Amino acid sequence: MSLDDLHLNLRNLTQDDYPQLKILMDAVYDDIGGAWPQHSIDRLIQEFPDGQIAIEDDERLIGVALTVRVDYDEFSNPHKYDDLVGNREIILNDPQGDAMYGLDVLIHPDYRGYRLGRRLYEARKELCRSLNLRAILAGGRIPNYHEHAGELSPTEYIELVARKEIHDPILSFQLANDFQVKRLLRKYLPEDEKSQGYATLLEWNNILFEPAERVLENRPTQVRVGAVQWQMRECASVEAVLQQVEYFVDALSSYQSDFAVFPELFNAPLMGLQDRATQQDQLAAIRFLAGFTEQFKTELSRMAVSYNINIVAGSMIEEGEDDRLYNIAYLCHRDGTIEKQAKLHITPQERREWVIEGGDELRVFETDAGRVGILICYDVEFPELGRLLADQDMDILFVPFWTDTKNGYLRVRHCAQARAIENECYVVLCGSVGNVPSIRNLDIQYAQSSVFTPSDFAFPHDAVLSETTPNTEMVIFSDLDLTRLTVVRAEGSVTNLKDRRKDLFDLRWRDWSWKSGSLTPGNPEEN
Fold this sequence. Notes:
15 helices; alpha/beta; 28% helix; eight-stranded mixed sheet; single chain; 527 residues; 24 strands; nine-stranded mixed sheet; Aminopeptidase; Nitrilase/N-carbamoyl-D-aminoacid amidohydrolase; 2 domains
């Protein structure tokens, strides 16, 4: 048959199709009893019309997929085909079922080779997603097993089919369509002599499934991020800097952003409020800057609530209870909560001139717009941190940074883009620009803020969602689709997180333990 002669149409099965369906089922299932009686098919169409899918060629029925809804917990455990059938061969459909069960897929012998079965399977998957059902289950016959039963057990046969050393017309097809063998079913269909009564319980997981309680939470899948490429400039007062901050927060909120992001140490020009002599003492200058942090935290939290936006407050210097200085990023939630992430890796310049200490805790923060992590500048150059955050199901990684030269910027940029690819997450890179010669260590800066994505078909071809003009004060907006992350992690061209060889290597937070969504001190003997 020529491809030019095909006129295919995918639609739902109707009761008027039964005469053609009977001919098709009798031909395909001649070895196990042939077609279902008409009243069985009519009842199935009445109870679950969307699940009965047909392909026709010029009104000739050439392919069918029959499906019911079932309770996942019941049918993901051992069962028999008869558990799906009631009195008078009524197929038992559960209208409240949280999974679909694939009963039959039939393709007319004259139309095999056109991948019509794949079309039917894809239609089932789309239906499963649209109904927010947990999975598709199926009891799969293994009709070629009788040829190997004398030398192979059913499990050995299944393993060889999975390794493509044996071809089975049903199991090989189902494995090629992303179904996984969950268990072996015994006496599933006793009259199936070719399979010798055995079947595989196959499962395709709906990675977009949300339990009812999560659906009611109305968790967003579309997140808008606004990042401020902030210009460092001389300032006359604390109020002037806060006024500039509020201007940008107001603007980002007006565009319904879920996050407003600022760069590392964005309030550093406040060091210029000291007299010139004091500024020359770098340790005194940075401690002077730390004196404004509490005021900034209070004001930024107020803005987050007032403008209904989560604020990633770049980073600021905090004087700890131990009298040591830390570089801290604050996350001001729009509900008034404030959380923080310390910079863990301190650059030689920070350590030498400002005596900054590295923090000792790594967090993933639960927000109303996804699970987020924060790595401050130099931290993003250490891939272990991004991977530890990815292990806690991070969606978005924020990287506030401050670099002076282009080569320093490119170190941060290339590492940030690598984190997006290897951890299958979004990365928001936000830096500062402008030269302030009057303040020591603020003389030159280079930045091009960007938003990076995983590198796959669902994302931009260069894995760059948006970016600013270099060295220009401006804002960028990006809409992040969290659903795409779910899909790429499970079904991408490559699946970096899934394919890690944990049998060869692992990654641990040394002598620490997981606790409340963060890595915090623990008893080494318990790890």
